[in-house]
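A brief tutorial aside. Many learners find it easier to grasp structure tokens once they have seen a single protein encoded end to end. The record that follows does exactly this for Large ribosomal subunit protein uL16. Read the sequence first, then the structure, and try to relate runs of similar tokens to stretches of the chain.
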Amino acid sequence: MLTPKRTKHRKQFRGKMRGMDKRGSVIIFGKFGLKAQSAGWISSKQIEAGRRVLTRYTQKGGRVWIRIFPDKPITDKPPEVRMGGGKGDVVEYAVTVRPGRILYEMSGVTAESAKEAMKTAGGKMPVRTKFIVKT
């Protein structure tokens, strides 16, 4: 699982997910990419699930780049706890994704294989995604 080595603050506000992503919206490393079409939080477990799918499709021939990193702490309170008592404990880390963000990149495989792999990885994501090719 991906987690930050250290953070400035242990807990964070939830924040807003307005607008489009300008940064990280162009394919840089690979030839094929998976682009987010809606906003949401992607947890480190979901990122790992997508990575496993993509590496299975590469079969030692291709290369996969993960363009997102979960640095937002998500807190949760235990079940059946009364109101108050402060904010809950950190249970996982997530990344805030907005429309336009490239999640994964891939190269060294055929276009059909990459499209199938990205479609399967997109199914693991909590946001709508789209397969794109570098022009």
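Self-check: The CA atoms of residues 40 and 97 lie 5 Å apart. If you spotted this yourself, you are ready for the next section.
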